[in-house]
Amino acid sequence: MNVLKYLFVGFVFGIVLTKSEAVSWYRIYEMFQFQSFHMYGIIFVAIATGVIGIQIIKRNNIKDIKGQPIEIQDKEKGSARYWIGGIFFGLGWALVGSCPGPIFILLGAGFWSVLIVFFGALLGTFIYGLLRDKLPH
């Protein structure tokens, strides 16, 4: 029964992303061509929501579901890894036309060609696991 609430939130999140057209290949293409503000608006709202949520958690000492304090670690200094990772992530997103999050939503909507993207994401994760110790962290 405990898993049902997470499934429910996942379904609602999937519906919201689908209705906002955030899973649309065309909207992603428009974003990377700088032809529309639609996706940038969605991303900016997500960032603002995250910033506000993190500040509420930090200022009110909110605890997790088990009663433990939520500790948010500061990021380590250094920007090269963020730039490199962001470039790889952005290139993959632009080439495939899908962020990793909506892969499951698109599969659930019946777009079976996304299975190729799913297996590519798994392969990339596997390769990262193999190279992790050699990468700058």
Characterization of this structure:
This is DUF6691 family protein. With 137 residues, the chain is mainly alpha-helical. 66% of the residues lie in helices and 0% in strands. The protein is built from 6 helices and no strands. The protein starts with a helix and ends in a 6-residue tail after the last helix.
Short note summarizing the structure:
With 137 residues, the protein is an all-alpha fold. The chain has helices spanning 2-19, 25-32, 38-60, 80-96, 103-108, 114-131.
Task: Supply the key terms.
single chain, mainly alpha, 137 residues
Describe the secondary-structure layout.
Blueprint: H1 2-19, H2 25-32, H3 38-60, H4 80-96, H5 103-108, H6 114-131
| Number of DSSP helical runs | 6
Low-confidence stretches: none
Strand content: under 5%
Radius of gyration: 18 Å
Category from helices, strands and their pairing: mainly alpha
